[in-house]
Amino acid sequence: MNKKKLEEKLREIDNSIKQHFRQEENTGVLVGLSGVSLFQFYYSKYLDVNSNANFGVEILSNVIEKINQGYGYPTFCDGISGAGWVLDHLEQADLMEIETDDLLSQLDDYLHTAMVSDMNVGNYDFLHGAIGYALYFLNRYRNTKSAKLKNRYKSYLFEFISFLDELSEKDKDGNLKWISVHPRSQEKSYNLGLSHGIAGIIGVLVKLSRYNEFKPVTETMLKGAVGYVLGFKKENNSLSLFPNRVLTNGETGGNSRLGWCYGELGIGLQLYYASKVLNDEKLRKESLSILKHAAGRTSPDTSLVKDAIVCHGSYGIAQIFSRIYKETKIPIFKDTMEFWIQDGINKAIHEDGYAGYKQWRDVNEWIVGISLLEGISGMGLVIIDYLADFETSWDECLMIS
Known about the structure:
Radius of gyration: 20 Å
Largest sheet: 3 strands, antiparallel
Helix content: 55-70%
Low-confidence stretches: none
Shape: globular
Number of strands: 7
Strand order of the largest sheet: 3-4-5
């Protein structure tokens, strides 16, 4: 891969962010200013300069000012809990000195209330519901230096686990499933994806199960969720191995494109992580088989990929294969990661885009964006991860690591 070309693309991304960041109104990590700041801090470390980190601080000051002025959207994707996750992450990664215990504990009651409110109406969604808050509180649980706060976050997480257990339904085989409601159509289904569905539940249960405090109450749910998802795996000669969702009448949709948000790639990654915490060799082999199938989907007709964004485009695919290669050292995953990085570079063709990039919307339009999930900040973070000689962990916000 051409390092010079990738570094030039990083400069273009940096310049575009500085020109357009004021257009972003949200504060969250995946879609919001705090996620944009992550690029600046990691880019500053990559270049070994202070200027980008200083700009990152400026962006975060803007975020805090918005919250102080009444910005009240709480979610992980585009709201306050996502911004809190970024501040906590920057302290953990030694990218910024900040007393997160003093600052973030002021938000605890508000975000806890939001989490409980969402669980009471069955909204477990990762991006816009209870899983996002749980991920934030788990990070606080890990990072806090206060025994009092640690106990507080522990109680919040047990409450989340209890809610998740109460929301679960058993299928005919005794596996566990969770209903979700489409925000626009109000259609009920069992969503299998990582961004909004049961793969996201598997992801957060994996993270909780790594702690001895939670594992006794999460392990059974984790096994039940894994069993349910695997029950819908298609034949290996199928284009995509999993449907996006299962309707309440048992019907499933068509093929899923390759991407982080839906389909076999996000599902396979979470099944791999589940195999580790469950010490399940059969599940590990199954997850690697799923990921190898995904690695074979590189043509436009088989991947169904149209753009380069992290959510469902080239760079998000590259990041997942990068992580799974680091985990397994299986060569096909490295080769596939290289393919998708190059594909991401090749997609910078839009003269009116940001750094040449636009996002394809299914409503038949191309739009620009700077966010981590749907814009150039996330693309830049993937490139930094690819080039850097230091370990990054920003992709924890996507449950990729």
